[in-house]
Write a structure and sequence with these properties.
Elements: E1 2-3, E2 16-20, H1 25-30, H2 41-49, H3 57-66, E3 69-73, E4 75-79, E5 89-93, H4 97-100, E6 107-111, H5 113-127, E7 131-134, H6 146-153
Parallel strand pairs: 2-3, 2-6, 6-7
Antiparallel strand pairs: 1-4, 4-5
Helix pairs in contact: 2-6
């Protein structure tokens, strides 16, 4: 059983919450979200927000908070093989109330289908708040180019 050890990124001004499924091996090693160099999360967000691509964890955190974006994951603990979402089982969900009670979250988005599926199963009953599915920024989602991902993710700019 692996336990999520990365704290959520949010503050009282957060308006958008983006949820992944569970941190990848690289993210767990770096102790921050979307740590695999091939994951396009930071490039997509930078393009959508009109920013430079952040390099350091501090720059990533600053980019998120300055644009009122919170980031966390659906899963608090699970069994997982490597970084494969398909292998996830024995899920314990995160409690989103710490974010939802601290910030005026106006929209919740999931980064990919597995995060959306898990949100629907475990968190929608607890939050009563619909989440919106965005295409995964994972390198496993090879059907989406960076440009196509950025186009789909532009929806987050309309919030706030």
């Amino acid at each position: 059983m692996l336990v999520h050890t990365i704290d959520p990124v949010y503050d009282k001004d957060s308006e958008i919450l983006i949820l992944g499924s569970f941190p990848s091996v690289k993210s767990r090693e770096q102790r921050f979200f979307y740590g695999h160099k091939q994951n396009r999360f930071w490039r997509v967000l930078a393009q959508v927000l009109g920013c430079e691509i952040p390099e350091s964890i501090e720059q990533k955190r600053e980019m998120l908070l300055s644009h009122h974006i919170a980031v966390w994951d659906v899963i608090a603990s699970c069994e997982i093989t490597g970084s494969s979402d398909a292998s996830i089982r024995d899920v314990t969900p995160n409690d989103l109330s710490r974010i939802l009670n601290a910030a005026d979250i106006r929209a919740i988005y999931t980064n990919g289908g597995k995060a959306y599926q898990l949100y629907q199963k475990y968190l929608l009953p607890a939050t009563g708040r619909e989440a919106y599915l965005l295409p995964s920024t994972s390198p496993a989602n090879a059907g989406y180019s960076l440009e196509r991902l950025a186009e789909a993710w532009r929806v987050i700019r309309g919030v706030g």
